[in-house]
Amino acid sequence: MLDQTKEINVCLSPALIHLHDIRNSIVVVIDIFRATTSMCYGLANGAEGIIPVAEVSTCAIYKDHGYLLAAERNGEVVDGFDFGNSPFSYVSEKVNGRTIVLTTTNGTKAIHLSREAKNVVIGSFLNLTALCNWLRRQDDPVLLVCAGWKDNFNLEDTVFAGAVINKLKDSHQKGDDAAIAAENLYLAAANDLADFLAQSAHSKRLQHLGIQKDIDFCLQVDLLNTIPVLKGDRLVVLES
């Protein structure tokens, strides 16, 4: 029988996070298209830290303090900022040795709402196995927080949550129906993630903006071993 403390649950939207006990949990924030993918990629490429903020106005406060400022709303870069949340903006040539202040439509809000958790880490397909290997070694319950789209359910974040649950099935027990549903969605998608997630509303949104390459990048599995963790006000690389 699985250890009863090793439970894994899914929060399908940040609007539901108040229904969960996060203070005693490890929260994994998920925003596959594209924020958490870019966070993982940026830290892997040498960024010193990423400061996630909920509002564009808060991001703007950091101007002229030596930070890179990244702001995205509705899939597009906000005027007046260095870049948005495309992973192609987080290459080493741009971010190595720099601190980034980032606000996005969904992902940074989910991080902000999760900040009272015992630990907050960041998940993407890029670091899927590394993340799951680390979670398997922890003793605390896990809550997978899907950033969704403007507080609504979305497909890609839930499929990723299901991938985590499936990888941890020998060490963690599913604690709610959302976890069961997420794993079933992942199993339906696993043979061809790109084809399955092409159905998603946000995938279509990004396609309309002409950035199919971002979608393709975000669906690469196990490109990285980097796990971002929230320390104080910023995300840094989790030291194993």
UniProtKB/TrEMBL annotation:
GO molecular function: 2-phosphosulfolactate phosphatase activity; magnesium ion binding; sulfopyruvate decarboxylase activity
Superkingdom, taxonomy of origin: Bacteria
TM regions (residue ranges): none
One Pfam family matching this protein: 2-ph_phosp
InterPro entries, A to Z: ComB-like, ComB-like_sf
Catalytic activity: (2R)-O-phospho-3-sulfolactate + H2O = (2R)-3-sulfolactate + phosphate
EC number: 3.1.3.71
Cofactor(s) named in the record: Mg(2+)
Name of protein: Probable 2-phosphosulfolactate phosphatase
Protein source organism: Sphingobacterium sp. (strain 21)
Origin organism lineage: Bacteria, Pseudomonadati, Bacteroidota, Sphingobacteriia, Sphingobacteriales
Gene assigned in the entry: comB
